[in-house]
Amino acid sequence: MNTDTATDETTGESESEPEPEAESEPKCGASSGDSNSSSDSDSRSEPSTCGASTGSDSSSRSSAEGSACGASSSGSSSNDTEKSKTREKVGATLEDFDAEPGQLTAVGLGPGHPEGMTERAKTALLEAEHIVGYTTYIELLSAEITDAADDLYDTPMCGEVSRTEEAIDRTLAGNDVAIVGSGDPNVYALAGLALEILESKGATASMVDFEVVPGVPAAQSCGARLGAPLVNDTVSISLSDHLVPMPEIESRLHAAAKESFTITIYNPWSRKRRENFEKCCEILLTHRDSDTPVGIVHGAGREDERVVITELGELEELGESELVDMTTTIVVGNEDTYVWDDRMVTPRGYETKYDY
Amino acid sequence: MNTDTATDETTGESESEPEPEAESEPKCGASSGDSNSSSDSDSRSEPSTCGASTGSDSSSRSSAEGSACGASSSGSSSNDTEKSKTREKVGATLEDFDAEPGQLTAVGLGPGHPEGMTERAKTALLEAEHIVGYTTYIELLSAEITDAADDLYDTPMCGEVSRTEEAIDRTLAGNDVAIVGSGDPNVYALAGLALEILESKGATASMVDFEVVPGVPAAQSCGARLGAPLVNDTVSISLSDHLVPMPEIESRLHAAAKESFTITIYNPWSRKRRENFEKCCEILLTHRDSDTPVGIVHGAGREDERVVITELGELEELGESELVDMTTTIVVGNEDTYVWDDRMVTPRGYETKYDY
Predict the structure, then answer these.
(1) Pick from B185, B205, B189, B206: which is nearest to B197 by CA?
(2) In chain A, at which end, N or C, are there fewer CB atoms within 10 A of the end residue's CB?
(3) Could you tell me which of A259, A124, A102, A322 has the C-alpha nearest to residue B115?
(4) Interchain pair B220, A186: CB under 8 A
């Protein structure tokens, strides 16, 4: 079974650039602090940096040409041919658009491969005129979906802030837009950012008929690969301290480990966050036995997918291996979790009430 | 958008019988404590109680006739015609089956309506010879799926223990079986129970090529209806104390509320658990302001679906209304969660790093 990468969009989407958001946003950033300076838009118009999709073999993936990351700089809303009506200046607000806004849909792709998508997600993508997303996810879409779209806008390494703003600008310019991501739009993903940016532009969610189409989160995809590790009360924690201070993350890890929550760890490792993983292992071991079962799913759904079930005491050392990186999701069992026949099982408690 | 009921299968599937598992399992219970007594199988053979599906208009939904809850009592594995090879005595173990075991797949339907199902789930159901599940979910399946199955086995109020045992007996008898539930098989659901019962019968997960097909959990379905309430670290807690002692639940609520987790509450209310909900509200209010946003999704995906966004201080009183029952899922925001344009938004933290 294929499952998804568990990578947090907020911190890393690529193995070669473990912290792309933090590092690349300033390079291409339509939404950087100086977005009100109109002269900046020129410096962002090189498509070679991180902006428009190029080299695509899809005929519908063309209108992003010449645009850099985020809102592109040419054209205006009055020039509303199919391909140019999306052109707005960087940092555009509602007042800059003349058109009747289109619809905006945040679509969770689930594990990423077409089989893991819901029928509703597929319908939403088929109905969208524009589909916006990280290149890796756009490339996972079936030809049926990409062929049906008027335009695909993908950024390889640009960060979700500029990409989300691009999606919203296109919506306010009158297009029906789907913004896609793996997993679920509510799990370390773009549903909230879309609403925040809509608000910052003076628009409303109602105005664009904003809809969130849920998807299967990485915790569920990876949990399924591991067996049944998550059937009781559970916690999801991201180790990325890009947007959340590490002391808060540590405090949450303590709280979750003290109680008998199972714990799904997102974004366990990056070159910049090696010590967060070590700290996490240390905290977990202060509350749980070293033989607590831990499931590790690396590169889920990719060619290099690996599923390993180990013990908590081994986790930190495995962090040194290639098994644990930004494409890895880790599921930590609770006191009752056991391993049977290469599966992790967290009993729900039936055995206390039933004989079987 | 449709979403699912958030009802925990372990505690209740029906509004008219809020605690069906606890109350009805002894009535129909193929897996009750006396399952080793062969004479017991006679007393369980009345199909009228809670067992076989009756009155179905599906031609493929026929072979459960005469069977009660759980493993049926007639026939044997040597009588292996298509419809009778599933007949095994109650409490059967691996040794009672002569056949080469079939495949067993635990399929998460997501929100329940066909649009919320993944393509993989649909494929798994189309490939299954037998589909086993709670009547409500079986009835949500499309005709394409139910027509393709050799047999459907559903129980209206019988409990997942006997139903899961039935699924496993049918698998060990040589059938490819899918056991279905709403949401995800790892979220208060049957993936773990299936493995536990397989083990108790002396079988293994490998032997039946056990697979979990993940689905969209109720937290995600309801989160999508509410906007973006769950984009940061989050906790799922069930208020059902049928299988977990209430002091443990209370302790987890304290721990989650003390930290800035958003909290999805499953199984908030039943006639027998009124006080759990009151206690939950009390605990949350000791750690969070009374104006903390709370989203309530009742009867998601049903005709009586209602979505209400309120404040934590109002929650206990709303518990008195019909809004909060076993079909309700509640999402409690954290300190940063706000309501904008009838949506709940929990910022991921982008606003601390980016201007938009």
Answers:
(1) B205
(2) N
(3) A124
(4) yes
